[in-house]
Design goal:
Distance between the termini: 43 Å
Structural class: alpha/beta
Bound molecules: adenosine-5'-diphosphate, magnesium ion
Strand content: 5-15%
Mean pLDDT: 82
Shape: elongated
Strand order of the largest sheet: 6-7-8-3-9-10
Radius of gyration: 36 Å
Largest sheet: 6 strands, mixed
Number of strands: 10
Length: about 650
């Protein structure tokens, strides 16, 4: 009980039903259009299979009639008389199987191809989104749109076509043959069904309340659906389905969130010896989900048990009433048999339809989530705009009165009237307190964001008029404090900087970055696979690979954002050597925390609270005795500089 109560707290993990976006039919149509022909064929086959299914009970009835005759009379040749009918039935069975095979193959073909197209389109559009978009979203959520949601949508689509068509045709067809067999029985059945459904609806709403208590995320259905007795019976099964699905996905998602976090950050967990606590957390989430799911499970079990009794009673009732009709010679035994089989088909089809209705709701919301980000267009496009030919590029950068606040924190100005010039071929150092906005300056230069006011120029041209892809891939080399490598070979990681670079270019870049030696000392050399995120390398080695990766594009402008601050003294020396070599002849912005690394700069800019507060050479600034001198003094004493005020 305590665990169930603990569940009341807001969930830490994202809920799949958070987003209530509308399903985009237009986009869906675009994905469906290439498959219309195949879809048409699948529909025809499914309809054919359903019609064959309607035929079968009638023929079975005729066969039973013959059997009954021979039970009575024991005369004539049973085999001979039933041969034609049996053969026909066998043919129908075969045909039914063949048609089913056909439409299932076609549907899975359409489903898989549509899923592939959707995943591709979504992935490509996600990759194009602004960096600000990713600041606000969890990657896990985005990935689940690519995987689970597409999967869900695909299976719903397939099910709706196959089961939906079949069930509808069978309900209609069987109702027709029922009324042809015996109008009276059919009418009786039609009277009995709604009353059963009424009871079912009551139970359904009780179940709904129950599941509400466990979990408040059951989507509302339009009340009109509930007012119709037939649809309410359908919604009944759907609710049980839907809630169990919701519970499952939500609860398991929360437990998964815990597991994901612990396994993903296993080093931190290990370092704090928190294994047991994580086990307990995971166990508690699992326990809570079990607790709720069991309560609902009991409700569902009760409902299913009662509905089984009801359906069986209907069979008995049909037999009883139909039997008296047979006794009164108003109906043949065979027709009664046909009637029973056909009415079972109706019931089964109706149950299928109700399950399907739930599936439609699930599919639509999954589809809405998939399509949501497909239509989103970024503010900063990936490409488009002019490029400057390499020979004309001087690499002079200027920030003119730039103000900026992050889109996800609009009221918080990070840069205020910030002005900075990076002359071509010179090294400018940017120093200042942590949180002062230095990395932000680099991000603006990479055009991850656009300034709120003011402009950033390259050779006098506003960055917004230049092609962003060209800017990032050919002009600017960016080396950050925590380099991220991909889980592939060293060769491929360096080549990431310039697609199609030759092996020689890779070696040259590695030499320039002081990396060639350690790479060749590995048994597999350049083909060594660095673990996921490069975990199998030391910090200094990773950084040198990152430098090689940046240098291979021969950038005119190099940004070093605290590139050595995570390294120990020895690695720092090797990396710094590589950086010094790489800096010659380029426009360089060195962002540094450790002031020892900026002494070689031609010009030093000190920033505080989002603007430049002083600049000059090391000596000039020391003489001035301002913030820079203060920072130098503090570092000499070994006290860290204070955090910038928030
Ligand atoms: P520095 O590199 O000088 O340490 P940053 O440029 O990283 O500082 O950060 C400047 C300010 O902007 C900080 O207050 C930080 O909290 C905020 N900030 C940094 N990145 C983001 C982001 N992606 N979204 C919102 N705020 C951010
Ligand atoms: Mg920073």
């Amino acid at each position: 009980v305590a665990l169930c109560e603990a569940e009341e707290a807001p969930p830490a993990y994202s809920r799949p039903y958070d987003v209530e976006t509308r399903f985009n039919w237009k986009l869906f149509w675009q994905f469906l259009r290439p498959h219309l022909l195949v879809l048409g064929a699948a529909i025809m086959l499914a309809l054919g299979a359903a019609l064959v299914n309607v035929q079968i009970p009638l023929l079975l009835g005729q066969l039973v009639e013959i059997v009954a005759k021979y039970t009575r009379d024991h005369m004539g040749n049973f085999l001979k008389e039933s041969r034609n009918l049996s053969t026909y039935l066998l043919i129908l069975y075969g045909l039914q199987g063949l048609l089913t095979f056909g439409y299932l193959v076609l549907l899975s073909r359409i489903g898989e191809r549509m899923a592939l197209d959707m995943r591709r389109a979504l992935f490509s559009n996600l990759l194009r989104q602004d960096i600000a978009f990713f600041d606000a979203k969890k990657t896990g959520q985005l990935v689940s749109r690519l995987t689970t949601d597409v999967q869900e949508f695909k299976s719903s689509f397939k099910l709706v076509i196959s089961q939906g068509l079949r069930s509808c045709t069978q309900v209609v067809g069987c109702l027709v043959s029922l009324s042809m067999l015996s109008t009276r029985l059919t009418l009786l059945l039609m009277v009995a069904m709604p009353s059963l459904m009424g009871v079912g609806t009551l139970m359904g709403s009780a179940l709904r309340k129950l599941s509400r208590q466990c979990q408040e995320q059951v989507p509302e259905f339009p009340p009109i659906l509930f007012s119709l007795p037939l649809l309410s019976a359908l919604s009944l099964l759907l609710i049980t389905n839907l809630t169990s699905y919701l519970l499952e996905s939500l609860q398991v998602a929360r437990a998964t969130g815990v597991a994901d976090e612990a396994l993903g950050n296993v080093r931190t967990v290990r370092a704090f010896a928190m294994e047991q606590r994580e086990e307990e957390r995971y166990g508690a989430e699992l326990e809570a989900s079990r607790c709720k799911a069991e309560t609902l499970g009991r409700g569902i079990a009760l409902f299913q048990g009662l509905s089984n009794i009801a359906f069986n009673c209907m069979v008995l009732g049909t037999l009883f009433i139909g039997g008296s009709l047979v006794a009164g010679q108003q109906l043949t035994g065979g027709d009664l048999m046909s009637f029973l089989v056909a009415s079972q088909t109706v019931q089964r089809s109706m149950a299928n339809l109700s399950v399907l209705f739930g599936q439609v709701v699930r599919g639509l919301s999954a589809g809405a989530r998939v399509f949501e980000y497909m239509t989103l267009s970024p503010c900063i496009p990936l490409s488009g705009g002019c490029c400057v030919p390499r020979e004309q590029l001087r690499g002079s950068i200027a920030f003119h009165n730039v103000s900026f606040s992050y889109p996800c924190r609009p009221g918080f100005p990070v840069l205020k009237d910030f002005t900075l010039t990076l002359p071509p071929g010179r090294i400018v150092a940017l120093v200042g307190q942590s949180g002062g906005g230095k990395t932000t300056v680099a991000s603006l230069l990479e055009r991850f964001y656009d300034p709120t006011a003011g402009r950033v120029t390259l050779d006098g041209r506003d960055l917004r008029t230049l092609d962003p892809s060209w800017l990032r891939s050919q002009v600017i080399g960016f080396i950050s404090q925590e380099p991220v490598l991909f889980g592939t070979t060293i060769m491929e990681n360096i080549r990431f900087g310039k697609l199609g670079a030759s092996d020689e270019e890779v070696y040259a870049a590695a030499r320039e970055a002081n990396a060639h030696e350690f790479i060749t000392s590995f048994p597999e050399g350049y083909n060594t696979v660095v673990g996921e995120r490069g975990t199998t390398l030391s910090g200094g080695q990773k950084q040198r690979l990152a430098i090689a990766r940046a240098l291979i594009k021969q950038p005119a402008v190099l940004i070093l954002d605290e590139a050595t601050s995570a390294l120990d003294a020895e690695s720092e020396r090797v990396v710094q050597e590589a950086l010094d070599r790489a800096s010659t002849g380029r426009t360089v912005l060195v962002i540094a925390h450790r002031l020892s690394t900026v002494r070689g700069a031609h010009h030093i800019v000190v920033m505080a609270q989002g603007c430049v507060c002083e600049e000059g050479t090391h000596e000039e600034l020391l003489k001035k005795g301002g913030l820079y001198a203060e920072l130098i003094r503090r570092q000499a004493l070994g006290t860290p500089p204070p955090e910038a005020p928030r």
